[in-house]
Amino acid sequence: MASRYDLRSAQDLDTSYASLPGTSGTSVIENSTPLKARILNQNLGGCHPSRWIYELLHNNFTVCDVFGRLRKTELNTPYPWEHPHRLMINGNQSYSTNSTRVLSSVCVDCHFHFVFKMSWDERHSQESCNPQQEQWPPSDARFPWHHLVWVGQESQSSPLVKIDDRQRNKYYPLVAREPFACSAGPCTFSVTLEISEPRMTREWIDLLLDHDTIRKNVRRAKEQDPDRYAAATDDWALQAPLNLNTYLKNLLEATSQENARSISKRNKRFFVLFGTRCFEMFRQLEFEETVDVAEDGVDGGTFTPPIPPRSDNPSGATDLGTYRAYIEDVRSEVQCIIHRGGQPAELCTPGLHADLGCAEVPNVDSVLVNITRYEIMGVLPNQPKEVVVNAYKIQWEMIPDKRKALIDALMSIGNDLNDEQLNEYAVTQSSIFESQVQSQTNGDDGGLTNQALLFFELQPLNDYKAQSIVQAFRRKVAQDPSCANTARNMLMLISQASTDDNYTAELVMEYGEGFSLPTAKEILGLSDASGFGPDTLDDVKEKIRNAKDKDAKTTYLEAMEKIAEHTNSTGLKSTVSELREMHGIAVPDGSSATGASAQAANFDLPVGLENIGNTCYLNSLLQYLFTVKPVRDVVINYDKFKLELTDEKIKERLLGGNKMQLDRGEAVVAQAFVQELSDLFNNLEQSDKVATRPSQRLANAVLLSTGTLLKETKSSAEATTESQPPPLPTRPPPGPPAKENNDVEMITVTANDSRDPVDTASTVSSQTLVEEDSDRSYDKVETSPTTTEDQVIDTVMEVGQDEDVVKISRTSDRPMEISEAVEKPKNGTSQDIESTDVNMLDAEEPETVDQKVLTALEHQKRSSGTDQQDVEEVMGSIINRLQAAIRPSSVDESTGIQFEEIMKTFFVTTINYTKKFDDKTYQKEISFDRSITAFPAPKGSCSLYEALGRNFDQEIIEEDKLSRYTAIKTLPPVLHVLIQRSQSMGSKNGNPVLIPEILYLDRYMDAPHESLTFRKRVESWATASRISDIKASKAAVGSTIPTGPILESIGQEEDAKGSIAAVTEDSEMTDGVKIVEEDWSFDGTVDDDYLLVGRPSVNSVTSAGLPSRPKDIKDTETAIREKMDSELRDKEEALENYYSKLKSNPYRLHAVICHRGQLMSGHYWVWIYDFEQDVWRKYNDSNVEVRRSTDEVLNTLSTSGEPYFLCYVRDEDKETYVDVPRRRRPAPPSDTSFENLDADGDITVTNSEPLKTSESPQELPPAYSEQNSD
């Protein structure tokens, strides 16, 4: 019998009454957020916001254990904190935006700080909970109030709050951070509560409230200097908090350090209220102290406050954790002391209720609040029935194992409220629930289903959503990995009992083919983690070692396999295989643990490249270069371009625009690289596997400099020869001496050893991301310090006045390979060493440079295969190797620069122009570069044209009084654009750059300075600069609300108050009870007395002496805003019109190399466009995917900070310079079953000579068939 039923009653009742929550058939929108997603990983209930606020103020959350943890923590606080908190607004730290709200508060009584950080998805703000959705009878699809669920429980073994030490500093002594999310389906609201300790110590407060000491100081001062202290009274003893409050107020209001108001230590009030006993307090407040001891022994120095910079927050609010926020916090605590002395405080609790979309419940009985029925329902006593039922419906899904208790609580609360409608609703819910339990229990298979539910710790009556069952399954397997097979069987029982196909499908996905990714993550403790790094791997290995049986070990290994499959991590797959072998656990049938190179290929897709140790950046470049015809031609037909390895030819070869001298070691490595690249390109065309594996020799040739290779060979040899005979000349690698006579034959081994050592990726030293939104790439976090050893910047500078060019060389960024890097053989004979194993006669022969570098290429390690380099650096290394391997095809007679196919294909010529303000002509500097650079916007997105403009457009440098710009002199057929995402302090600029399919470069091309083209370009620079200024002004204006209406309303209020001020002034000043904040003026360093300025009279200044108040402020502001908008539209239209005519140099996008991660770590992949088949392919190490839609790909690339290296090709030459080679299909097997039979079936004997075939070349295999987009 099925376990899911149509619960709608046949009676004429509203479906809301006659159906249990979630079964009315009403569809509900589900909007997810990262915090909200964590609700599914726990079986915790939530509560109505009114109860949430009540529990917070009374230090007793039903679910969140933050106050329990605080009770176990030794806190150095001035007052006890276990009392009902009275919160008031703290400083200038609260603000609102379209998607956030921050409310900063402090408790009047204990000085603890409570910050409420609220956020929601602006796109779904209309779907947030809203009291206007309240209705009766209730509906499953309406959510009038938030239902807040604590989502801070990450795992049972880890602490909830992990607070950085920097967050526990003096400025922000944070003790707890607790996130809560609204569990209503459509709502994206969340609130994070941050609790921090008081800023003032008990000692400070005692000093301010030490009335007896202050009175003694006053009396002593009056006795010593009666004239100066004639106005002093004992009332001064109560004014220390008021004075300190004013000091801090003036500090916060000061606009610059020059306006800072110093406090003289001899000041009358400061001397008696604070004096030397309080000096340390002002030092802790970071006031700058000066000491000036007079003859009378009294310090006449000063305390000067530092003036903190104002926040650059668009809202103007103070940033938490700053010095300004700290001073605001201290001032708020001082005000709390004043309020406790009798001044009434305005509490912010009503505002907090409004922010959370609820109403405060008056006269709450604290005894009833903690009764079980209100705790489990998450409401307060006396809340209306609509609130109760709303909470009941949500709790039904949050805590499915307590549904019977929820119905009992619903009935009890109905009795408490004595509400007829609520009682009727509760009785109906109870009746339906009991009847369904009974019917399921009596069914043929109901008993098995109930047993399965109980196995997952769920109460019978299978009205659970599929996701709730799945979550229970995950919890069970994570808690007890040895029961995984039993849990799968139980899940199968529940799925088979359902008649809902979608419901069944969701459950089958969990037990059908291994674990799902979320289940695997929960088993391994990665539910809330972002990576599978070294620490995680160690933890999992420890779990496997400690597992109580083989079934538990198998569960962990299957979960690891799922992670490896999802991330396509060959390193992790290898680790799983090793662990299986170590623990004697066989690979299950259907496992995907085999590598990509062993899998049969889809011949419609290109061949992927396996990652051999954090070489995703190299794989991306190799895949791209395979599609560049000149590169492929050089590599495949290398003999046509090969540089002869004679000393004369090597000496003559000069590389790049700076004509860099080539040495022999560099030439040898370059030729080895091209040979390895040729083998790889052949494999990419002929392989019948999903992916092929680049050789470690190829990777070493690119990623290690020749100097490094020679240095390593030298150091290895030295280490060996210290105590052992020297190695044979070509033995790879140098090692201990041989033990047998046969080893003497090793002298014949040459450096052309074809072995391809496998350098498996080290999972321990890399980190594989396992986020849900992974694109199944090998998402490694590969960290290593950036090295510039191989970086080559091919440039030559020509400096002169316009056409009068004087050539000078620019220093190369690449270190020259010098002969000293090779160890010279020592003269003399070697010592006679007794040995029966080795004939040492040949050891005297020195190892050549060729042998040394080739040997090092075979055996050099790259830090266990996990170094990662910048893709632009690696591209430079590849281009340099290719150039060093081939001879020049032509030489520029005027400059001596040698050109070959690589330089002709990729190198762009640019001119850097510089001119001082007083000069009439530009100086220029000509450069040959392998790419041009684009700079993303500091904030927000920008177009590629804008990013390139930051490199090419005019820049005014005021301090040096000069202007400069860059222009392109000549363009190559294949143009590389580097999006420079490196920023200062080692951070990455992840702002999106809008990438066009066609890039027009006319606006950057060089033009004579007297030409009309250049004059128009100068005008465009001015227009673009003005547009930038207007946008900056609009952003500044948009971040503040219009002040006109406010100023005008204030002016009207002041006019009204002025008419009654004279009447009320005297009465207020004589009221002895009312405390008025005084306007204190401060002494500077002069000896003037501290002056108490009384409350000014409104008649002290005549209105005739004041300027007239400005009028029509609102209209003026509106007009200015409209003018800015109008000018911006006009300027943008003019600039766009100018650019629209510049389309003579179109380049079409061919490839995009992307990077995800941090600046020094992450993962690379490449998108390559196939012009012939009109498809995009994503090459992600071994994995190759296809996308048909260019718009879809460009939208993906233009909305993230992942694109890093763009490859464009001149539109008219794209067929000449780029294509995607076709994979060669194997010849189909011939059908020979009947080829030798005649018509009667007899065997026919034929001549064995092969038939003559056409002399025309064999037709190439067909092109890739078009792919269905996925």
TrEMBL record:
Record keyword Transferase present: no
GO biological process assignments: proteasome-mediated ubiquitin-dependent protein catabolic process; protein deubiquitination; regulation of proteasomal protein catabolic process
Domain of life: Eukaryota
PROSITE patterns on file: USP_1, USP_2, USP_3
Protein name, as recorded: ubiquitinyl hydrolase 1
Pfam families the record matches: RPT (PF13446), UCH (PF00443)
Catalytic activity: Thiol-dependent hydrolysis of ester, thioester, amide, peptide and isopeptide bonds formed by the C-terminal Gly of ubiquitin (a 76-residue protein attached to proteins as an intracellular targeting signal)
Residue segments, region Disordered: 713-788, 1221-1270
GO terms assigned for molecular function: cysteine-type deubiquitinase activity; proteasome binding
Polar residues compositional bias, start-end: 760-769, 1244-1257
Domain USP: 607-1211
Organism: Fusarium oxysporum f. sp. vasinfectum 25433
Compositionally biased region (Pro residues): 724-737
Signal peptide coordinates: none
